Amino acid sequence: MDIAAYRREVGLSQAAFAALLTDAGSSATQGIVSQWETGVVKVPAERCALIERISNGSIRRTDLRPDIFGPAGNVQEVA
Predict the structure, then answer these.
(1) Is residue 62 within 8 Å of residue 46, measured between CB atoms?
(2) What does the record list as coiled-coil region(s) (predicted)?
(3) Buried-exposed string 3-28: b where 16+ CB fall within 10 A, e elsewhere
(4) CB within 8 Å of 21: residues ≥ 6 apart
(5) In this structure, which of 2, 28, 51, 54 has its CB flanked by the most CB atoms within 10 Å?
(6) How many folded domains does the chain comprise?
(7) What pLDDT score was predicted for residue 71?
(8) How far apart are CA 55 and CA 50, in angstroms?
(9) Does the residue 75 lie in any domain?
(10) Residue 46: which CATH number?
(11) What is the reported pLDDT for 33?
């Protein structure tokens, strides 16, 4: 699942999703979430595990960056 689909499913705005990341220790803004969703900027690899964790696994790192983490199906457990 991508970030936009997750946000729609749980009823979060881009700003609210950014706040979740910030609260978890990785500063983010509505603008950067928008850029990730539109593909203007790729989600940094170091943020993928955190996004996977705050979404309770709904957004997988393999969905966000298959170029780094491989295709879906090769998922390892999030610590």
Answers:
(1) no
(2) none
(3) bbebbeeeebebeebbbbbeeeeeeb
(4) 27, 28, 47, 50, 51, 54
(5) 51
(6) 1
(7) 79
(8) 8
(9) no
(10) 1.10.260.40
(11) 99
Amino acid identity, position 70:
G
> How far, in Å, CA of 78 to CA of 41, rounded?
24
Residue 72, by phi and psi: left (phi above 0), alpha (psi -120 to 50) or beta?
beta
> What is the rounded (10 degree) CA torsion for 24, 17, 6, 59?
-30
C-alpha–C-alpha distance, residues 25 and 5, integer Å? 23
Instruction: State the pLDDT confidence band at 78, using cuts at 50, 70 and 90.
Output: low
For residue 57, the enclosing domain spans 3-65
Residue type, 79: A
CA trace torsion 69, 45, 26, 21 (10° rounding): -50
pTM score, whole prediction: 0.86
**46 falls within a domain:** yes
